[in-house]
Q: What sequence folds into this?
């Protein structure tokens, strides 16, 4: 059974910081490309940041320079450090694990954690 459990969301003032965590179960973490997505009300889910098993990282333009994605293999944990938060960062943030096994791609999602940035 694969499970991704996010934590760390909350209410923060604009300009503040939060760190999200995502703990993955089983062997999924070490063999997957890990990403953070977010979805604001009435908007489509969007990719925020991605980190591969080799440590290659990519960010959405809207968060580059403010957010930092990282992974800690020994703890099966993915992080998203969010600094200089803006009102438009308000969304539900989801952890995603993408694994390709025998040519078949599997995606796994967490339940999401709410981030609310206030003025």
A:
């Amino acid at each position: 059974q694969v499970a991704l459990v996010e934590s760390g969301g909350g209410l923060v003032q604009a300009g503040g910081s939060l760190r999200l965590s995502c703990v993955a179960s089983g062997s999924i973490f070490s063999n997957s490309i890990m990403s953070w997505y977010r979805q604001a009300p009435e908007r489509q889910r969007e990719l925020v940041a991605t980190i591969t098993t080799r440590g290659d990282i990519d960010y959405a333009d809207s968060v580059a320079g403010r957010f930092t994605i990282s992974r800690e293999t020994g703890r099966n944990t993915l992080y998203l450090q969010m600094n200089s938060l803006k009102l438009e960062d308000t969304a539900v943030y989801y952890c995603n694990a993408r694994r390709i096994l025998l040519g078949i791609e599997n995606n796994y999602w967490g339940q999401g954690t709410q981030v609310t940035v206030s003025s």
